[in-house]
């Protein structure tokens, strides 16, 4: 009797193990595409996939990921580290392509691209060279591109007799102070300039725009990382002074302000200037937006000696090295980066395509006239350092710059320690 | 002859007992012991996704103990543990004692107290994020309405503010858990003991200290153990509320390790997990020892 029971238990386990093994087995003909984002974005991808399936007969499974960039990355790192054959195709943030490429997780695309003549001149060349080629090999293609922009209230600048958006940070401060003082009488929540200052990756993107526009930034001298430079100190000091001295940025800048918080704040009509990515444009023009038709976009301001800079962002598509359907996956990559789909990406989601040729499209310019100016911004966007260990350096910078914004450290002290810690990271990972 | 039969019977009983335990043992082996062993094993390697894998013995730990980031995370997590867990125990005990009295609407009250515990941590963290919000948060609204402050306060903006906000949110969320465990413990205490004590004219406080507390001790230790381990690995609340800010002062142990996993430094990330595991194990053994000691005294 008892032996029978033991057998029953064993059989039960065998069944479970077989079931689990069955789940892991994959139909050879299916391409698994891992993508995350807001609900409307995922819906859009599903529509695209249906179209792709109808056109080619190749089946695509969508592996839904969260919106949060870190969580999307986490999911991919786990699959790739354990050499899993799915997902086959996925989107990567430009900030971590270098890590994926250096880890040898991405399939080389040259063999495929050669046949389909993805020639030069179709995509943003500079972006391709920075992010999509690793040691000479093509490993990804840009799906959409981002760069920091200055949004401003056209109506308010006009009302106060200011003809053009600010060219320098000094002008931005001056305009903000002038207009903010007046509007605060009726709206105490009004601030001159909102930007991303919370402790996360966005803070480093903002920092680079301040620092590089002062001829600073994250630079290297051989193996030595340079953070503690007079230019960077001046930039971080200005970031702090926007909050503490001029008070044109809200005190919550360093605790709450990320992209969406900044966008919402500006959209409520509570700010004169906003630093954000291009995605905010369509949302500002949305029916519910209080600043509809009152917004203009311009290049970000710069220091007296430097020139305007936007940090390069965006998402790129690549194929896993462990995929067992690389040929079919390439068909999907080709489809996503084709002219028609890239155009739809712009028309339906308001995203900025990775293809340069779409920016000249008549329909696109008709619906999104600001695209004409964006092309120039993206062509000159400043990348974050393309290092496999960039995240670790960014983490150090986030902590110390955020501490300066919080008033816990002086810019000099913060950058001094940040440089030391970053140097240790460089030595650990080089 | 009889001995042999007993032996066989024993053997059969043993076999039956083990066959019942088997699923549990397999489960613990597969999902707890193996991963822990795996983490310890990985922590001995330089296992960085974009560099060559190399056995380096304790190098990761050496680097870890010299890293100021590690000590900052260690300090924050320990401080968080020391402040939040006692508060949770005190409030939990208080709630449990109150809910154990025969008061009107007792069932309803018990359900209400449980609500915070039933809400997923990430969602309650979002709720608290809205309460602490600088521009339209409930906290600032109340403080300004009550005239406690003229200008809004940036709750998450100072070291003390961010720390206390995290503690308050955590205490709010997990006190019900402690309360419910202690309530079960209270109900297991025989009513006769209290009745007898009343006959002996012991007042409420005397009964509480001489009867309730000693008998509750094993349950208290269990609640303490659970809360300590949970506080040690705090992640979701910090991730949503402060992201480790301002300036990294609220980076918890788990967040610190998590970042290394994201960056592809699996060896180092594992060594952080192993250190956390050793601390949790040490504290657990310590608590279990106290529990035993308590029993011997009684």
> Globular, elongated, flat, extended or rod-shaped: what is the shape of chain A?
globular
SSE order of chain B in H/E notation? HEEHHHHHHHHHHH
User: What is the CATH level 1 assignment of the largest domain in chain A?
Assistant: Alpha Beta
What is the structural class of chain A? alpha/beta
> What's the helix count of chain B?
12
Report the CATH superfamily of the largest domain in chain A: Periplasmic binding protein-like II
Strand content of chain A: 5-15%
Q: How helical, in percent, are the residues of chain B?
A: over 70%
- The CATH architecture term of the largest domain in chain A is 3-Layer(aba) Sandwich
Biggest beta sheet attributes of chain B: 2 strands, antiparallel
Low-confidence stretches of chain B: none
Biggest interface: A-B, 44 and 40 residues
Terminal CA distance of chain B reads 43 Å
- Integer tally of domains of chain B: 2
Strand fraction band of chain B? under 5%
**What low-confidence regions of chain A span 5 or more consecutive residues with pLDDT below 50?**
none
CATH superfamily of the largest domain in chain B: MetI-like
**CATH fold-level label of the largest domain in chain A:** D-Maltodextrin-Binding Protein, domain 2
**What gap, in angstroms, lies between the N and C termini of chain A?**
64 Å
Total strands of chain B: the figure is: 2
